[in-house]
Write a structure and sequence with these properties.
By secondary structure, this protein is α+β, with helices and mostly antiparallel strands. The chain is built from two helices and five strands, in the order ββαβαββ.
Length: 108
């Protein structure tokens, strides 16, 4: 199984590294590995906005564009939406994203 890494910056200053199988969402990997800060109340169906992350500069252009469903859900996040906001359930890891860096908001 081929994997990619993702660096997760927590609101308290800690950094965690996830190993994510290609084709797996960032949310699925975070939940499977018990990483705090990713709620995913809807189970990854893009219906709750509790897997909000900020994509670090330089990585945003490598992601698939935000679709209408994700765009609507990003208006419902607990922390303010930024241009770098994405939902981790919609970030599907691949070799092109290995080394991705994201920052978690203080609250989901």
């Amino acid at each position: 199984m081929t994997t990619a890494t993702c660096n997760v910056n927590h609101a308290d200053g800690r950094t965690s590294t996830l190993e994510v199988a290609h084709g797996t969402s960032l949310l699925q990997a975070a939940l499977a590995q018990g990483l705090a800060g990713f709620n995913g109340d809807c189970g990854g169906a893009c219906q709750c906005a509790t897997c909000h992350v900020y994509i670090d500069e330089g990585w945003q252009a490598r992601l698939e564009p935000v679709d209408d469903t994700e765009d609507a859900m990003l208006d419902c996040t607990a922390e303010p939406r930024r241009p770098s906001s994405r939902l981790a359930c919609r970030v599907v890891m691949s070799s092109e994203l290995s080394g991705l860096s994201v920052t978690l908001p203080e609250v989901q």
